[in-house]
């Protein structure tokens, strides 16, 4: 809570709770995309140098409202000498606004199905 604009990590790794269907696993399979996750999953990300990212990687980044979004990279665009990242949810119709590399939190590693709901439950007061 001290730094709400920063995702807490341990040795460069962080767990995140998936709260939307934008990367639905079944939809991703239909389009031949590797990976993905469902609403309610617990996912794990790892910090990464943004210059190492490539198309089809799934990344987590902070949007304009400092909320964490986890979507797939669909391409890169140069803007004022910066390699901006264009992402989109597998289940989304439209692209996300361009992501500055400084806003990248990490790259998707794995998921634990349905454990996000349990993790969310543990965060609520009794």
Top keywords for this entry?
126 residues, mainly beta, globular, 6-stranded antiparallel beta sheet, 34% strand
Structure, explained:
The chain has 126 residues and is mainly β. It has two helices and six strands. The protein has a six-stranded antiparallel β-sheet, with helices on one face. A hairpin with a 2-residue loop joins strand 4 and strand 5. It is globular. It starts with 12 loop residues before the first strand and ends with a helix.
Specify the biggest β-sheet. Answer: 6 strands, antiparallel
Structural class: mainly beta
Percentage of helical residues?
Answer: 10-25%
The largest beta-sheet arranges its strands as 1-2-6-3-4-5
Taking pLDDT < 50 over at least 5 consecutive residues as the criterion, the unreliable ranges are none
State Rg.
Answer: 14 Å
Shape estimate: globular
How many alpha or pi helices? 2
H-E order: EHEEEEEH
The N- to C-terminal Cα distance equals: 20 Å
% residues in beta strands: 25-35%
Number of strands: 6
Look at the structure and give the mean pLDDT: 86
Quick summary:
By secondary structure, the chain is mainly beta.
Write the layout of secondary structure elements.
Elements (H helix, E strand, L loop, with lengths): L12 E5 L7 H6 L11 E5 L11 E5 L5 E12 L2 E7 L15 E9 L2 H9 L3
Antiparallel strand pairs: 1-2, 2-6, 3-4, 3-6, 4-5
């Amino acid at each position: 809570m001290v730094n709400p604009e920063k995702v807490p990590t341990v040795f460069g790794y962080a767990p995140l709770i998936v709260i939307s269907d934008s990367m639905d696993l079944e939809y991703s399979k239909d389009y031949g995309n590797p990976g993905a996750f469902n609403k309610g999953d617990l996912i794990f990300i790892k910090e990464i140098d943004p210059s190492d990212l490539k198309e089809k990687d799934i990344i987590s980044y902070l949007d304009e409202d400092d909320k964490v979004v986890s979507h797939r990279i669909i391409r890169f665009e140069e803007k004022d000498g910066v390699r901006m990242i264009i992402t989109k949810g597998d289940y989304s119709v439209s692209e996300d606004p361009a992501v500055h590399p400084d806003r990248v939190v990490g790259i998707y590693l794995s998921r634990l199905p349905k454990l996000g709901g349990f993790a969310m439950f543990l965060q609520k007061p009794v």
